[in-house]
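chain below, 80 aa
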Amino acid sequence: GTPEYLAPEVIIGQEYDFMVDIWAMGILLYEMLVGIPPFYNKNYAKMFKMIQENDLKFPSPKKYKIIIEDNAKDLIRKLL
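prediction:
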């Protein structure tokens, strides 16, 4: 699949199930609202580390002029 959408379980080589598709849906929804995936980096090794270790963050509405409703943030958090 697309590296930006890989779930942490897939990256570390653990056994996985359909939940990785739920993860990918959360990543896609975030990307549709923000414009880039939440853990994006051009360097795949860095990006994979971010997927495994970083907390989910949403862009500052004031700085980036992107407003994401609380219910959308809640859904994304639950999907991820």
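The longest helix spans residues 19-34. The mean pLDDT is 96.
thats it, cya
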